[in-house]
Q: What sequence folds into this?
């Protein structure tokens, strides 16, 4: 007998478990459309050129794994302090907030944003959840139905109550805007409303600019706090500004808001775990207080964040030449995904004799497509066709090549029947 007998085997993660099943499949036709990671047309992982250049710069400068702190008031005393401060790399925090809001945004100029470096998008969300749990006891987080699978885990583990608002309408494979507005209205005053800044995961369906304004209206009416999850800035449309438009329009109203950021997709820094948590306040004083509490929450969880990814981002976003090169590479990645989306749509239309309207695929944006396949049909995709995907019918177009579109179209049409 062991004292661990009471610990049952945990189920595999519904998203990350897909890759494990994929690895075990020996069929040559197999296709991994489960995890949302960018692949080249040859279906290989891709390290951005600007990331390599930033890393070369770091090598040339002979940067060590510690951090130099300059204390200006003590005769410019330089000290090696081993670790980053709890809030992360200052140069990173500066550029990441500027990238999100725009450098000349009044919220930046007036120092109303509390920014701390986080352990990518997930860790930033988790830190914010801890802040909600501590300072807004009982407040509920409203999340879209459906949403990225990890959102529920994050709020559950932080002991933050959540409920869902309607988002996806299976009849139109589009947005249930009326339902969304009604549910946000019906929530208790002062709730947090989790919104995907762009390229909604898993549906690929975003509100229009006019719909965003109406969403902001009800949130203000109900005194809710918007909480944006921005995991795809620049990666969805190819434009950093267009993908941040929703967040910026809320900020322009003078609203207090939360924004979690991730560099996993747009800079391809997945395993570096680099992102940030931003809280927009109504004064610099409030921002300083919020930041101090975010640091206090982070300290016993992980002490301080890792430096490598933060330096890469600071070098790329903070350097005008690399920044422009990054934008070009992002357009390339977003463009490849759009081409694959178009080819998949064309293949489905050409092969499907049932008269089904596939145009919903072209209306979705970002790396995912929500196919409308149910769980049994998604299982058929995997078991019969060796196409690995999540059971909610989501496929990652970033893991698809033009060459495989026809095969995938055959699999989808067959699995629908
Ligand atoms: N939010 C959403 C909506 C996502 O799709 C993802 C990535 N799958 C994340 C957050 C977090 O990813 P990461 O922790 O790698 O930044």
A:
């Amino acid at each position: 007998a062991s004292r661990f007998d009471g610990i049952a085997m945990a189920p595999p993660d519904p998203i990350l478990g897909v890759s494990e099943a994929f690895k075990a499949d020996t069929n040559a036709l197999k296709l991994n459309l489960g995890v949302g990671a960018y692949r080249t047309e040859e279906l290989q992982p891709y390290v951005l050129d600007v990331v390599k250049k930033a890393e070369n710069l770091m090598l040339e400068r002979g940067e060590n794994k510690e951090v130099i702190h300059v204390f200006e008031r003590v005769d410019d005393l330089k000290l090696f302090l081993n670790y980053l401060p709890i809030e992360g790399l200052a140069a990173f925090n500066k550029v990441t907030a500027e990238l999100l809001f725009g450098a000349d945004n009044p919220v930046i100029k007036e120092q109303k944003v509390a920014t701390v470096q986080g352990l990518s998008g997930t860790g930033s969300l988790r830190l914010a959840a801890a802040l909600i749990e501590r300072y807004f006891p009982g407040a509920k987080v409203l999340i879209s139905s459906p949403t990225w699978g990890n959102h529920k885990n994050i709020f559950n583990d932080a002991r933050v109550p959540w409920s869902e608002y309607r988002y996806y309408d299976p009849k139109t494979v589009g947005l249930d805007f009326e339902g969304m507005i009604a549910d946000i209205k019906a929530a208790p005053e002062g709730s947090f409303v989790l919104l995907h800044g762009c390229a909604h995961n898993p549906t690929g369906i975003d509100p229009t600019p006019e719909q965003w304004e109406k969403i902001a209206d009800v949130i203000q009416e109900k005194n809710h706090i918007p909480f944006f999850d921005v995991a795809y800035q620049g990666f969805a449309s190819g434009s950093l500004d267009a993908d941040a438009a929703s967040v910026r329009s809320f900020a322009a109203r003078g609203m207090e808001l939360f924004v979690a950021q991730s560099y996993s997709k747009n800079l391809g820094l997945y395993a570096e775990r680099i992102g940030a948590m931003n809280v927009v306040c109504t004064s610099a004083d409030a921002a300083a207080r919020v930041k101090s509490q975010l640091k206090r929450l982070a300290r016993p969880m992980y002490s301080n964040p890792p430096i490598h990814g933060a330096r890469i981002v600071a070098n790329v976003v903070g350097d005008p030449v690399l920044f422009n090169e990054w934008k070009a590479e992002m357009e390339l990645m977003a463009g490849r995904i759009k081409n694959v989306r178009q080819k998949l749509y064309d293949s489905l239309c050409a092969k499907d004799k049932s008269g089904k309207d596939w145009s919903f695929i072209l209306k979705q944006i970002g790396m995912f497509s929500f196919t409308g396949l149910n769980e049994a049909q998604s299982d058929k995709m995997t078991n019969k066709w060796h196409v690995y995907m999540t059971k909610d019918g989501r496929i990652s177009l970033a893991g698809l090549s033009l060459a495989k579109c026809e095969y995938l179209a055959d699999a989808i049409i067959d699995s629908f029947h």
